[in-house]
Design a protein that fits this description.
heterodimer; A: alpha/beta; Rossmann fold; 2 domains; six-stranded mixed beta sheet; 15 strands; elongated; B: mainly alpha
Chain lengths: 348, 253
């Protein structure tokens, strides 16, 4: 694809680096608001060149965690090293070495795309002689060359997002933080942005840390995922391994008396986990194919009418459920505040 | 060096935004015009300072008022930046908070100065004596006056959460500062209530207006304070407000 070719040529300009210590290492990182522990004793390592996903429901502490790593928030306790710099003592050095794309829009819509990029280059001390060249390459990369001189207010939501992603790269950061990169975007644009983020890593060893509450996003993008809940990391592994830990299949049953069926299954079958999700009973078992007839049998015996029965592989949703006892979907509605909300609604 | 580039880019942004906002540019000089033409003409019949007509008297005051209102209003850019999220982009950049504040402050001051210059041009049309040399001397004085005033606006805006609360506080500061500055009537001399005179001493704008008046009206005006004291007070006020502003900026999230 045209887009990918651009990316490669862009990232050839990054100097290759050798095997390195973790790009990010947190040490008991904690942030409390009054009595609430937004981030609770976080200890993670992010390796050079990986895409690291922080997955969790809203309020899990993802944004607070990366805000601390980006030096926007000061930790209440503990610290972290980003690119070898301490986020508390060497905040300015950390800032120079990272790129950030915020959850909410953060561009000046009274300036043109190019002006926004120039401003960023100047704020990050990119040498004047290199600015024009870098900006042109970034514009090409995010395919906004033809709109570069238009005011941002005439851009669509997806175009703004792309410009923000491009902007985050102008000063050649070693780590790129993406906070909910595709919230509020249409599926096509999301797909486009996902492809783009994946290419970043492939083309060169830029490290990406992203937060998301979208399962599919975390699954498709991340090399490793940390599932976060109530300020703590519940589990951390690669998506395939996370799914493997569930050791089995998921049987989804729809029936007329779902609560009773759950009770029956729980008492009659050992070694399983049951949960009602969206009015269907989900049973996680070792050998799904063998258990399915047994469930039909149990239902018939107890005069429960089964509407449908299907078997599927476990997904991240199940992993999340397994470790937190909740579904992430219960609280995925995104609340935006202030003008950003109005603006984003307008974009949609 | 990179701080200087940051400063420049922040300054440039404020200028660009200001010049692109035509409605604001036009509407902002209507008000001083009303004061000069209508208020000046109507009120002038009751005004007695030998050798001066009322419009000549209030002209430097109206320049001061324009600088005050424009400068204070500039604080709104901080609120917009916060609401639209652009403030985050600036706050996470490696530029120091002092540079951040200074860049914004200088940009907004330049905008306010442009307004002041426009009002200056009106004065000429109204027949207030105009001399290019006086105009050139007034430029740095106007700029000095705006520094402190813009800093007040930025400080309040960065401490305020919303547009509404900023608007309320702004009016609460604008009008007393304007009325107590000697812009519309003398704040010292016979017949002026003592409390008003004392209040005007604590108003930094009094010194700015007095300085402008000293330069613009020349020998026709007897200054409250000598020019160097006026400018000295304005400079001290600027420095204090820049300090306070930087401090509030560094606490902003």
């Amino acid at each position: 694809m045209f887009f990918q070719k651009n990316l490669k040529s862009f990232f050839l300009s990054f100097a290759p680096r050798q095997n390195m210590p973790p790009v990010i290492e947190t040490n008991r990182l904690t942030k409390t608001y009054n009595s609430l522990k937004a981030v609770d004793d976080l200890n993670i390592k992010v390796e050079s060149g990986e895409i690291f996903g922080l997955l969790g429901p809203n309020g899990a502490g993802k944004t607070t965690a990366i805000s601390m790593l980006c030096t926007i928030l000061k930790p209440t306790y503990g610290t972290a090293m980003v690119n070898g710099f301490d986020i508390v003592r060497e905040a300015n050095k950390v800032r120079k070495s990272i790129g950030i794309v915020f959850q909410d829009p953060s561009i000046d819509d009274r300036l043109t795309g190019r002006e926004n990029l120039y401003m960023h280059a100047n704020l990050y001390g990119v040498p004047a002689s290199e600015q024009k060249d870098r900006i042109n390459r970034v514009l090409k990369l995010v395919e906004l060359e033809d709109r570069a001189n238009d005011l941002l207010r005439t851009y669509s939501g997806g175009m703004r997002r792309r410009l923000e992603l491009g902007r985050g790269l102008i000063h050649y950061p070693k780590v790129l933080f993406l906070d909910e990169p595709t919230v509020g975007l249409d599926p096509q644009t999301r797909d486009h942005i996902w492809k783009y983020i994946k290419e970043l890593k492939k083309a060169h060893d830029i490290t990406v840390v992203l937060t998301t509450h979208y399962m599919d996003e975390a699954d498709r993008l991340s090399d490793r995922i940390a599932i976060m809940d109530h300020g703590k990391i519940v589990v951390l592994d690669s998506p395939p391994k996370l799914k493997e830990t569930l050791e089995g299949d998921v049987i989804v049953v729809r029936a007329n008396n779902i609560d009773f069926l759950k009770q029956v299954v729980n008492t009659s079958l050992s070694q399983n986990q049951t949960q009602i999700v969206d009015g269907a009973l989900e049973i996680t078992v070792r050998n799904g194919k063998a258990v399915m007839p047994r469930i039909m049998e149990l239902a018939t015996q107890n005069k429960i009418y089964v509407e449908s029965l299907l078997l599927r592989e476990p997904n991240l949703e199940d992993v999340f459920l397994h470790y937190t006892g909740r579904t992430i979907r219960q609280d995925t509605t995104k609340e935006l505040h202030g003008m950003a909300a109005i603006q984003r609604r307008a974009i949609r | 060096m990179s701080e200087m580039r940051g400063l420049y880019t922040l300054w440039l942004r404020e200028i660009k935004r200001f010049l692109r906002d035509r409605t604001r540019l036009i509407s902002s000089f209507i008000q001083p015009l009303l004061w000069l033409v209508i208020f000046g003409a109507g009120f002038g019949t009751r005004f007695l300072i030998p050798g001066l007509n009322y419009q000549q008297y209030i002209f430097p005051g109206i320049i001061g008022q324009t600088l005050l209102f424009t400068s204070m209003f500039m604080g709104i850019s901080v609120i917009w930046d916060k609401e639209f999220g652009f403030m985050k982009e600036i706050l996470v950049s490696p530029v120091s908070r002092f540079t951040l504040f200074l860049g914004k402050m200088l940009g907004d001051s330049t905008d306010a100065l442009i307004q002041g210059v426009i009002v200056f041009a009106f004065g000429t049309l109204l027949g207030v004596a105009f001399d290019p040399i006086i105009f050139i001397i007034c430029l740095p004085i106007m700029l000095l006056v705006t520094f402190g005033l813009v800093s007040i606006g930025l400080t309040i805006a960065s401490a305020m959460g919303s547009l509404e609360s900023f608007g309320a506080i702004q009016t609460f500061i604008n009008l007393p500062m304007f009325f107590l500055s000697g812009a519309l009537f003398p704040v010292s001399g016979a017949g002026i209530p003592e409390w008003l005179r004392v209040a005007s001493i604590f108003n930094p704008l009094t010194y700015g207006v007095d300085a402008l008046r000293t330069v613009i009206l020349g020998s026709a005006w007897i200054p409250i304070q000598p020019l160097y004291i006026n400018l000295g007070v304005v400079c001290v006020f600027d420095l204090v407000m820049i300090g306070v502003g930087t401090w509030t900026f560094s606490r902003m999230k």
